[in-house]
């Protein structure tokens, strides 16, 4: 039968929808059981409160307080760093003259605090001299970054060349006897208290390398900065692969330099690779973050593509943190967490409840209006909205688990508004079906023909919505991203529902006697839709001017069997309703 | 009821037709007047009022407050703080939250030094703590210039991409132009109503505006798709003029436009009234007002602005002009017979 195909298709679509729903529920259930997901979406700062972190600038002795401009810059960078870790809608503002207040939902872990407070000023300095750190801390036996364990080789030339002018950054002439003395007595633990920039970029730096557990393993005398972190154009994190392309299982940060950085980096690696990797520690290149050495690898080859990778004692978390920090640039100044307190919601439960009540009232109004306008067809709208609601809820719960998405009151309002957007797809579709019925098609035919036309319109219109969501999500920061995510999500779900639920349900309904016969309560009554006038022709074909009897005969020819049946069964109605049509002309 | 679906039928067949395209001068004049009012009224009120998220403000922290461990006393403390601040300056729009277990944080509009001292005293009295336990400081904007900058950049990129997308989909840039004019009309009027009522522009309101932007374009695309269908499918063999085809499309989608407008506006109206009546000013009212006006104006402008402009832009194309002339001479011939 011709009709069996749409019905089969309809059931297949509904089955897909079921698979998607079960799949999403399964993903969320997995998250709830094995991870920290919860069945309810997490709420944002305005509804649930969170943590208020006050950051004070870390100032060295005699260092001036940061200017307003520096603070604004720091706020912008911190915001990008927080945004990069998820869509949490943090609130960041300056407070008083030199503080920054960061409010984030939930309780931040150490990693988050570090992500926010550290300057992340990255420098590449050549190693001039190195020694084992002389701290009381027990030294770990494993030192993955320094596998060519550099032996301290104090050369006698050091003391005598203090007055000579260094020729390049690796030149031992940088090390004056005074500096060497400072180096010998240097206590790595003082680094924890020091400010970020312990030495100017054009001067040598004494610093240490920290291991995973925070103890210091090596100390260094480093030459002046050769490549600065400002020349980094992008950074990402991942597992480092060896030369065969096999993953080594250690996390690292991959850097991409801009043109200037690439040239500088190539020059330096060319010079350093001239030193013997096994005997001369000057072959090594130190990667310095906020004044501390992350790692000081040996230079085996000249790197000309401007894409070095940093390995060190990274975990997956800390590699991502550093990559995000490098990507968005260094803070003009480092901060320290002054206070870290819980903060209550500013709006609280009353506002959320009112929002939900308003949403329910709105939904009921939409239901009433749909039933009024589309009779039983309105129930399809309601059912579609409910299915859309379920999918949206699941997706939001999953996003709040995976992406740190938080539902704010504005987000709730956005979801309520989405009812209107979603319902419009159904309205466009229903009106198209009615148009087809008016043109004299039978219901199953009208459903298929109307669907083709409606789908095109729905796709075009939703594409505009999706475009705005994607562009805003990629380019905007802060609250706007949360909004964009909500908009994009509801748009995609909307299209999914129209294709996998509304249309299949209509296909099935069209095959039932109740709807196919055009029962007055079905909302698809051909009589009410004017199709009954086709006998008198003038209302039949909109493309023709009135009173062409030829069109009437043609219309009769084009009637399907179902329509003729409908005609026959409602013949009396047709005659009686032709009278009011005359009245209408008077009005 | 029945009359409404009959209304729909008549619009579809052309039995009843509202002359949207033909009377465009009237709509243009109305639109110009509305836009002018939307610019003048807020100006007369002294420009837009931006919330503390944009301008920064004053922050007070009351420390050493007892019994803030439970939800009940917390809510009470929040209400007390808000009432106290409002008793000093009714326009301060305080945002209160509890920090830690014994502090109350109040953020308000930027206050003058004198007012700030009064608020400190009042808060100290209300919470029965020493004045020295109430600190006052300046809080910078949490919606900084960087957010505004990036949002505006994103907006421009979106509008340009949307215009290109529509031009490609509809195969004519004239539809993009018409849609953009309608979009501008919607934004100006929505913002104008905000300014005229003296509502504060908050981040929620901005998000409301962004939603409107999407809705306005969305609604226009739906109606334009019908126009595309009517004007391309029979093009030069059509018994109607181009303007007539456009007008028929608008009429045929009128029921859709009304239904969509109502369905989209109903939940928003529910938020607006619950938000405004039950809760007073706040996030819900801010966002709902922008949306409510925007949905109505967005639906209106598609019909009364976008479609007539599109028709006007294309009427003078040689093909369409000759088709129109042919139809006119036919009609003339028919009437003189």
Key traits:
heterodimer; A: 587 residues; alpha+beta; 6-stranded antiparallel sheet; 4-stranded antiparallel sheet; 49% helix; disordered C terminus; B: 337 residues; two-stranded parallel sheet; 12 helices; 71% helix; elongated
Q: Order of helices and strands of chain A, N to C?
A: HHEHEEHEHHEEEEEHEEEHEHHHHHHHHH
Mean pLDDT of chain B: 83
Number of helices of chain A: 17
Q: Name the helicity range of chain B.
A: over 70%
- Determine the number of helices of chain B (DSSP H or I, runs of at least 4 residues): 12
> Can you count the beta strands of chain B?
6
Strand portion of chain B: 5-15%
Main beta sheet of chain B:
4 strands, antiparallel
Largest interface: A-B, 91 and 99 residues
- Calculate the mean pLDDT score of chain A and round it: 75
Give the C-alpha Rg of chain A: 35 Å
Structural class of chain B: alpha+beta
Quaternary state of this entry equals heterodimer
Strand order of the largest sheet of chain B: 3-4-2-5
Measured as a percent range, the helix fraction of chain A is 40-55%
Notes on the structure:
The complex is a heterodimer of chains A (587) and B (337). Chain A is built from 17 helices and 13 strands. Chain A is of the alpha+beta class and 587 residues long. Chain A is elongated, with a radius of gyration of 35 Å. The C terminus of chain A is likely disordered. In chain B, a hairpin with a 3-residue loop joins β3 and β4. Chain B is elongated and about 95 Å long. Chain B starts with a helix and ends with a helix. The interface between A and B is large, with 91 and 99 residues.
